[in-house]
User: What shape does this take?
Amino acid sequence: MQIDTESFSVGDRVQVAQSIVVYHHPDHRNQEFDLQGQEGEVVQIVKEYKGRPVSANFPYLVKFGAKFKVHLQAFELEKV
Assistant: This one.
């Protein structure tokens, strides 16, 4: 399966397009937190690790606020 890493660029403003539940949000630790509708910024696209190419399952690292980052897939995001 080919991972699409061309949909977004570092610095793009994005919004979570579907229901994604996480349990590591700093303000809601160990509780369900739905990311749907949250806006953030793509801060990294994972294409390599220690100089070797990788095909990450969740290649987009998106930053929401000062302390919260999540790895997501392209179909979970939309540009703002």
